[in-house]
Amino acid sequence: MTTMHSHQTARKTLVAALPSQEKSVLCAIKCGFAFSWGFANAIVYLLTSRFSTLMTGNVLVLAIETRHWAGEDLRFTSSLIIMYILGGAVYDALSIKFEHDGGRVLRVFALPTIVLMGVIADVMQFAMGSCSSISSSNSDTGESEEKCSGKYLYFLAPIGFLTGIVTSYLSAHPDGIIVNMVTGHMKVLPKSLLVRVIEGNKSSSNLIKGFTSAGITTTFFLGCVVGSFLFEFVMTSYSKGYFTPMFTIFSLIMATLCFLHYTFCDQFCFNYEIEQQMMEEMRKNVLMNKNPRGRKSNVVDEYRKSMLAAIGEVNERSRMSVQSELSVSIGVKRSDEQPE
Fold it and tell me: I need a surface site. Which of 73, 187, 221, 265 has the fewest CB within 10 A?
């Protein structure tokens, strides 16, 4: 009896602590995404005056190039946007086709393709000699042409495809937090502070969300700073004609983050949904009860019990559903085996 009681107590403690731990894991992974996006955007922008993930900026550049009809520059910017759309469309199509097996889409298609796109980008850059110090000579005019603009930048098109895949994956995830752009995140913390001050809302959930968004913005900024520092190293390597696996490393990091996100954060969404429902029910019960002192003192205990009951009910329904399906299939099999 003592062992069972201690086991139940340990499980209660674990389940009660699990949502907070998974929130921390989710925040760390999202910040990892933000840092990586900032790093890639800084290098691509300094290299091409375009963005690797901020497609709104690329649309602006495309509009200016269309106004001046900038030929090769216009085609290059269009290729980045088109590849971004194609990458997202392919991932979305597979997600719709295999709606109940998102893990399969991620493992079989997304992760290998993300790494492949990074390798292709580096191989294309090396094969084309993009941004090397040895300029090619135009046989018709005898003039040298720059190798870090126009057609020599198409090695970045696979990065647009990679970005489309990762963005679509993150958009489809139940937590719905996008980290390849930080415009929306900048206003979350000020709003949560205003709600806390003006409405007197002492709930920590909004404040945690605000600090999470602030962390994503900060890590994106830090990624941009690191990328700008390493740009000189990348350009030196390019100019000497060395094979530079920068985008291969970037793609490996993104694939690892996607795998970690899928592995560790699905359970968070389930727990968080239950937590929000339970907290809302407890808030209503406390407000409706006429004896708040005794009621409020037991709010945390009641919340934990309700949450454990909800999780147990969901698990029990899942188990019964599986048993029902097995029983039906066994019954059908036996009826087929009976002689006529």
Answer: 187
| Nearest C-alpha neighbor of 281 from the set 260, 302, 297 | 302
CB atoms within 10 A of CB 305: 13
pTM of the model: 0.69
Note whether 133 and 59 are within 8 A (CB).
Answer: no
Q: What CA–CA distance (Å, rounded) separates 294 from 313?
A: 28
Contacts of 172 (CB under 8 A, 6+ apart): 92, 95, 102
- Torsion angle of C-alpha atoms 93, 98, 101, 104, degrees rounded to 10: -60
- As a whole number of angstroms, the longest Cα–Cα distance in the chain is 92
- Kindly report, residue by residue over 162-207, the tens digit of the pLDDT: 999 998 888 876 555 667 677 778 888 888 888 878 877 666 777 7
Q: Using alpha carbons, select from 165, 167, 154 the residue that is nearest to residue 128.
A: 154
